[in-house]
Design goal:
With 375 residues, the chain is α/β, with parallel strands linked by helices. It is built from 17 helices and 14 strands. It is elongated, with a radius of gyration of 22 Å.
Length: 375
C-alpha cells in the first residue's frame, strides 16, 4: 500500500495538527541527516533542524564535513536565510540543537530521522538521482536498533518510499519497526525558515497502515482546532466569563499577505467567540473590507491601536508582520486587560511579558514557555 496525501496550507491549520498527531510530546528526539555538502540541500536541511528545535524538540544534525559541524556547533551559520542565524545561535546555546559527524550517535539518540540530501536531476534529464538518499539510508539503518521513523525530505521519483522502506527494514536490527514516510519540502530561497515552520502545502507519502492512521489523526486534530483555541481562551480568562467579554481578534485573512478570507480559521474563531456571547472586534491590515463584506455581523477595523480599546482579551489569529513587529510597550495601556492568546504560536512572548502582557500560546506547554498548552 502506498498513500500520498496533499493538503493546501493557510486556510486550515493542518501543519499544527500534523505536528500534534505525529509528535505529541514536545521533547521527542529528532535527527537531521545532512550527509552532503551540497548547498541546494544543506540550505534547506539546516533550517529544518533549527525549526524543529524551535518547536521544542531535541535535535542532532549529521554532516560529513567536520569543519562545517564545528562551525554549526559554535552557532556560526554557513548559509544565510532570514531568521536562521538567530535560531541557530539560540538553540545551539540552549543545547537543544547540536551537530555531529557520527551517524551512529544520531541513530542511538533519535526516534525520528529526517533525511535531507541532494537529489539532482539525473543524466536523462527526466528523473532524480537518488543515490545520496539510498547512501544515507544504508549508513543509518544498520544502527537502528529500536522502532523509529525515517522521514525523507528530498525530492524523489514515484516508488522511492516503498523501496527505501524495504531497504531500511532489511538493514536495520529493528526490522519492521522502522517506518518510512516521505514529506518533500517546498522552500523559497530566503524564506526557508518561514516555509518550514508554516508551509503553504504538505505532501506526505507513506506505506503502512500505522502511518495512514497518523495522518487521519492529524485531520481529526485539524477539525478540532477552533475548539482547541476556544478552550485555551477560556483557560486564559480564568474565572472571567467569555459571555459579555470584549474580545479583539487580530487577523481575518486565511494567511498573511492576502485579503482572501475564504475558509479563514481566524474568522471562524471570531464567529465562534461571538456565538459564545463575546463582543468581537476584528482587525486586519488588508482584509478588513472583505471580512466586513462576508461577515457583516462582525465589527471590523483597520485601526490597530483602536482595535484594543477596552479589550478584555486579544487573540492573535493570523500572523501578520504588523502583529509580530508591534511594540508591546506602546500597546499595553490600551486594552482593559493586557491578555494575549497567540493561536498561531508566532510571537516571541518574552518582550510582551516583560512589557506587562500576559501571554498564552497554543500548543506550548506550561513548562516550556509559561504558556498554557492546547490540552
Amino acid at each position: 500500500m502506498c498513500l500520498v496525501c496533499q493538503w493546501p496550507m493557510g486556510r486550515r491549520w493542518f501543519g499544527e495538527a500534523l505536528h500534534a498527531a505525529l509528535w505529541p510530546e514536545p521533547q521527542i528526539a529528532a535527527s537531521a541527516v545532512l550527509r552532503r555538502s551540497l548547498r541546494a540541500r544543506i540550505s534547506s536541511a539546516i533550517p529544518h533542524a533549527a525549526a524543529m528545535a524551535s518547536l521544542g524538540h531535541e535535535v542532532i544534525g549529521v554532516d560529513i564535513d567536520q569543519a562545517k559541524v564545528d562551525r554549526l556547533n559554535a552557532g556560526e551559520c554557513p548559509i544565510y536565510e532570514i531568521g536562521l542565524p538567530e535560531l541557530l545561535v539560540r538553540h545551539t546555546e540552549s543545547g537543544r540543537l547540536r551537530f555531529t559527524t557520527e551517524i551512529r550517535e544520531a541513530a542511538e539518540f533519535a526516534e525520528v530521522h529526517f533525511i535531507g540530501v541532494g537529489t539532482p536531476i539525473d543524466v536523462d534529464g527526466r528523473s532524480y538521482d537518488t543515490s545520496q538518499v539510498y547512501g544515507a539510508v544504508r549508513q543509518l539503518a544498520p544502527h537502528l536498533e529500536r522502532p523509529c521513523t525515517i522521514i525523507g525530505k528530498s525530492t524523489v521519483t514515484v516508488g522511492t518510499t516503498s523501496q527505501v522502506t524495504a531497504l531500511a527494514q532489511r538493514l536495520a536490527p529493528a526490522g519492521a519497526g522502522v517506518e518510512v514516510v516521505w514529506n518533500p519540502e517546498f522552500l523559497r530561497e530566503g524564506h526557508a525558515v518561514q516555509d518550514t515552520l508554516r508551509p503553504d502545502r504538505i505532501i506526505a507519502g507513506l506505506t503502512t497502515a500505522e502511518g495512514e492512521k497518523a495522518l487521519r489523526a492529524a485531520e481529526r486534530v485539524n477539525e478540532r482546532r477552533i475548539d482547541v483555541a476556544l478552550r485555551l481562551i477560556h483557560r486564559a480568562l480564568g474565572d472571567r466569563l467569555l459571555k459579555g467579554a470584549q474580545v479583539t481578534v487580530w487577523g481575518a485573512a486565511f494567511k498573511p499577505g492576502t485579503s482572501d478570507v475564504r475558509e479563514s480559521p481566524a474568522l471562524a474563531l471570531a464567529q465562534a467567540l461571538q456565538q459564545a456571547g463575546a463582543t468581537v472586534t476584528v482587525h486586519d491590515p488588508q482584509a478588513q473590507a472583505t471580512a466586513t463584506m462576508r461577515h457583516p455581523e462582525l465589527e471590523c477595523t483597520s485601526d490597530l491601536p483602536g482595535s484594543l480599546d477596552g479589550a478584555d482579551l486579544v487573540v492573535l489569529a493570523t500572523e501578520w508582520p504588523e502583529y509580530l513587529q508591534a511594540d508591546p510597550q506602546a500597546l499595553v495601556a490600551l486594552p482593559a486587560n493586557p491578555l494575549l492568546v497567540d493561536c498561531r504560536t508566532a510571537l516571541d512572548p518574552e518582550p510582551w511579558r516583560s512589557s506587562g502582557w500576559t501571554v498564552h500560546q497554543l500548543g506550548r506547554p506550561e513548562n516550556a514557555t509559561g504558556a498554557l498548552g492546547a490540552g
